[in-house]
Amino acid sequence: MSSEEFERLNEIYRSLYEELKLIPDRAVSSHGEERKRLVRDFDERQGEAEEVLQGMEDELRGAPSSFRNAMSTKLRMYRRDLGKLQRDMKNSAPGLGSSSQPVRGSHHGIYSTENEQSTHLQSQRALLLQGTESLTNASQSIERSQRLAAETDQIGTDIIEELGEQREQLDRTRNRLVNTGENLSRSRKILRAMSRRVMTNKLLLGVIILMELAILGAVVYLKFFRR
Keywords assigned by UniProt (predicted)? Predict the structure, then answer.
């Protein structure tokens, strides 16, 4: 079946049914207080079985459509079998409670003498089933929360690792920029030194040219104009 809860309730019902089907035969051969006790036990187990079947019906309403036919068939069979056991039990103890001369119109038969006790026990059983279901739901919710927390922790760890890698990359980039800045500074110094040398060379070349012109002028003056 598609529902784990439906399967769990199915197992509970089968266990109750196995107990119930033995009681009618035992009631036939018993008398007095023993028979009353058997009727009381049957009434209690029958109430528990009804609660379980009601829980199975609740699960049926929320089950996928592909599973509902099989689940519904099983429920109808269980209710039919339970009704048959109830008729067998009535036939097994037909005169139970007749000596007490019940008032006309009141409920009597095999369930009349212990009705209040069985109702109380059924209520307690229903509360127990509800409590068990609530605990199951709470456990599932805690498990989901734990899985979510583990996934969140893993995501956080991955993010921290990624940030660490990015920090290392930034540090390497910064170091490369620092080295590049130092290289640029050295290059500027070299360029400035080369510029000064070029200017010096130009000045020297200008001085040399001026000196040569002066010498040439002196030679021309001495040769052609001085007598």
Answer: Coiled coil, Membrane, Protein transport, Transmembrane, Transmembrane helix, Transport
